[in-house]
Amino acid sequence: MLAATRQIPDQYKLVSVAEMKAVEARADAAGHSYHAMMELAGEAVAQAVLQHYGMLGPRVLVLVGPGANGGDGLVCARHLRQAGVTVTAYLWKRRPALASPNPSPGVESGDEHLARAVELGIPVDHAEDDADFDTLRSRLTESALIVDALLGTGANRPIEGRLAALLECAHHARDARPHLDVVAVDCPSGLDCDTGAVDPHTLTANLTVTFAYAKLGHYQFPGVDASGLLQVADIGVYPYAGDDLRTFLLNADTVRPWLPARPRVSHKGAFGKVMVVAGSVWYPGAAALSCAAAGRAGAGLVTGALPRAIWPVVASRLAEPTWLPLPAEDNAEAVLSVGGIDASATATVAQAVAGYDALLLGCGLGQAATTGHFVQQLLQSPNLPPTLIDADGLNGLSPLTDWPHRLPTQSVLTPHPAELSRLCALPLDEVLHHRWSLARQQAAAWTTVILAKGPYTVIAEPSGGLAVLPIATPALATAGTGDVLAGCVAGLMAQGVAPFAAACLGAWLHGVAGQQCEAEIGPAGVVAGDLLARLPDVMNRLRG
Predict the structure, then answer these.
(1) How would residue 329 be classed by pLDDT, with cut points 50, 70 and 90?
(2) For 95-105, how does the pLDDT look when each residue is reduced to its tens digit (9 = 90+)?
């Protein structure tokens, strides 16, 4: 997948703080100086302010910190002043023109940016001279907009002391005037740009202008909410990025190349065959939803392999799939106690799936002992097609210490956090806190694609790529939507889409269909079946 990751446009990649520093250092060494980057960054923030807020009759207050982030803020203030906006700068720990023989990257020796702001007549106040913050409160009262340039992306320590008190003044001003917006420079001060953690004193931004690449923390909660509308500005470093940036966003531009072709001269065999092993007496709907989704994703033929006990129920709901009823207990009382697929079904499925292009295993199978044995035995069968393992397929594997060795060569695992916790034998809290890095780490260790569900869903590939789906909607927080997702991805795999690309494309289609449901039906009342008819519409608009 390395080649495909290289083809992702730079503006859609995400970086850690360390990766961003490395890119900037390479750019500076190649002649694109920190000074040039800062000029472009500050100008981009000013342009974003003008674009979103116009000329703003009252003044703009720029809160300026001591480092490069404060330098960006001063450049922004200068460009706003030159555009005719009334601007005031309030400085924390940034004193005027004291020449330094070893300035920090992006900070001019003697602080040229502060000197140029003063030369333009921009009023400058210093927190050190404002013991009770009376001046700050006055500036906040007369301002229409705050530009937060206090702390940069590298800040990750708790906010304390004078800075905490300064930010509290800004919080009180916003409480009194809810329409007092904040534009963050690179990131809201107090956001950990690697983890998304947010300090309690952080000013939530209405708009964040970040530079070159969005940072990992911009797309992890609660950092997502703290950043507001996120805008990425080009500061001229893309030629120096290298090929080692492996995290990127899923959007229409990045997933469109993975759509499978639909030639006019074709037949159902041209679009692949997928077998869906799913369902139990407790969850017959899971079989119906996953089979239907595979067809809606474009698979030419879908075969549902499900317990004989639920076959009549599911088949009566879906006319399109073919069926492979599987052995189960015939005695009604035993069926209810066992509920799922009998282990003797292994040979039946293994023989039948030989002619298929993809296998989906797990949706609604239940956790009966016989079903777990069936899952374990089936995955030992030779020559399985590309396989997606979901839900109870994963639960059937997790008790085995050697389960990663049983995975087919091309496989996709789709765990939610609790399932990932069981697979990794880690506490759920640890999984929730490290879900992105854990997905990437375990995809490499298990040599499989991992689609780690949750807001935001991430998809990791064995070679290190990590795709982020920036969609979170309550419309998808309802039973059965995971079955639709699994069926959608499996249907794409059946059409020859590689596992990682299929997982990325399927997750995006599923997420956008969820957004469409929220827009058309509402945040409450959406059921999983509502997604099915919208999948082809989302694909059609993507093709267009």
Answers:
(1) low
(2) 764 434 445 55
Give the Cβ contact number of residue 322 at 10 Å. 13
- The length of the chain is 544
Could you tell me the residue range of the domain that residue 374 belongs to? 253-543
Three-state SS at 259? coil
Q: Measure the CA–CA gap between 182 and 91, rounded to whole angstroms.
A: 16
C-alpha 413/C-alpha 406 separation (Å) is 13
Residue 138 has pLDDT above 90, yes or no: yes
Which stretch of DSSP H or E encloses residue 273? Answer: strand 273-277
**Residue 112, amino acid:** E
pLDDT tens sequence across 153-186? 988 899 999 999 999 999 999 999 999 999 999 9
Residue 489: alpha-carbon gap to chain centroid: 17
Sheet holding 247-249: strands in order across? 214-215, 13-15, 247-249, 466-468, 458-460, 449-452, 411-414, 387-390, 358-361, 273-277, 301-307, 322-326
Rounded distance between C-alpha atoms, residue 403 and residue 540, angstroms: 39
Q: pLDDT, tens digit, for every residue of 261-301?
A: 999 999 999 999 999 999 999 999 999 999 999 999 999 99
Whether residue 248 lies inside any domain: the answer is no
Does an H or E element contain 265, and which? none
Shared domain check, 372 and 262: yes
Residues 484, 289 contacting (CB under 8 angstroms): yes
In a domain, 31, yes or no: yes
Domain boundary among 241, 262, 280: 241
Q: Identify the pLDDT of residue 106.
A: 46
DSSP 379-402: TTSTT--SEEEETHHHHHHTT-TT
CA dist., res. 538 & res. 291, Å (int): 19
